[in-house]
């Protein structure tokens, strides 16, 4: 059972499109924004609302690395690990995050504030190496700048 306000948003997305299944990504984003991840019971409800088989919704979640079925956190830090960011020293970025937050890829800080996720592309190659905190994209410039950015997400 989803909270009424989340259920209402999902129904609004589903009814906006000519075919309900076209709302799948919007619905999954709403669920993740609400819970911090995508819990199994929510997958079932999204499938029901959109009139899709559960395995279809599960496959969409598995395909896109923007969706997270693991341990939730208030904020997700996504670090691009594609070839361009790799060549532009994404390892310095990962090391700075590990040093500052004490977590590695796939881990959540003890206070549940941040989760670090490696992704294949963030679509900002000209700014490499890049990372996102929730929906905000940043160029990694220095450890100090990284700490300043992360301090905004309290």
Describe what you observe in this structure.
- It is a single chain.
- By secondary structure, the protein is of the alpha+beta class.
- The chain folds into 2 domains: 60 residues, Arc Repressor Mutant, subunit A (Orthogonal Bundle), CATH 1.10.10; 78 residues, Glutaredoxin, CATH 3.40.30.10.
- Helices cover 47% and strands 13% of the residues.
- It contains 7 helices and 4 strands.
- It has a 4-stranded mixed sheet with strand order 2-1-3-4, with helices on one face.
- A hairpin with a 2-residue loop joins strand 3 and strand 4.
- Helix 1 packs antiparallel against helix 2.
- The radius of gyration is 17 Å and the shape is elongated.
- The relative contact order is 0.12.
- The mean pLDDT is 93.
- GO terms for molecular function: 2 iron, 2 sulfur cluster binding; metal ion binding; NADH dehydrogenase activity.
- Belongs to the complex I 24 kDa subunit family.
- Pfam families: 2Fe-2S_thioredx.
- This is NADH-quinone oxidoreductase subunit E.
- Its cofactor is [2Fe-2S] cluster.
Question: How are the SSEs placed, and which strands pair?
Answer:
Blueprint: H1 4-16, H2 24-35, H3 40-50, H4 54-63, E1 75-80, H5 83-87, H6 90-101, E2 114-119, E3 130-133, E4 136-139, H7 143-151
Helix pairs in contact: 1-2, 2-3, 3-4
Binding site for [2Fe-2S] cluster: 80, 85, 121, 125
GO molecular function: 2 iron, 2 sulfur cluster binding; metal ion binding; NADH dehydrogenase activity
Family: Belongs to the complex I 24 kDa subunit family.
């Amino acid at each position: 059972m989803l909270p009424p306000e989340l259920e209402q948003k999902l129904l609004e997305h589903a009814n906006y499109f000519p075919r309900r299944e076209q709302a799948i990504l919007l619905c999954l984003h709403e669920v993740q924004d609400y819970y911090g991840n995508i819990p199994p019971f929510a997958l079932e409800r999204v499938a029901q609302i959109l009139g899709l088989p559960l395995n279809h919704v599960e496959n969409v979640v598995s395909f896109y690395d923007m969706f997270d079925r693991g341990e939730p956190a208030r904020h997700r830090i996504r670090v691009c690990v594609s070839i361009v960011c790799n060549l532009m020293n994404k390892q310095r970025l990962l090391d700075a995050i590990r040093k500052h937050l004490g977590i590695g890829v796939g881990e959540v800080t003890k206070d549940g504030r941040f989760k670090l996720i490696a992704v294949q592309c963030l679509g900002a190659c000209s700014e490499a190496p890049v990372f996102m905190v929730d929906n905000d994209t940043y160029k990694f410039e220095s450890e100090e700048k990284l700490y300043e950015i992360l301090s905004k997400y309290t």
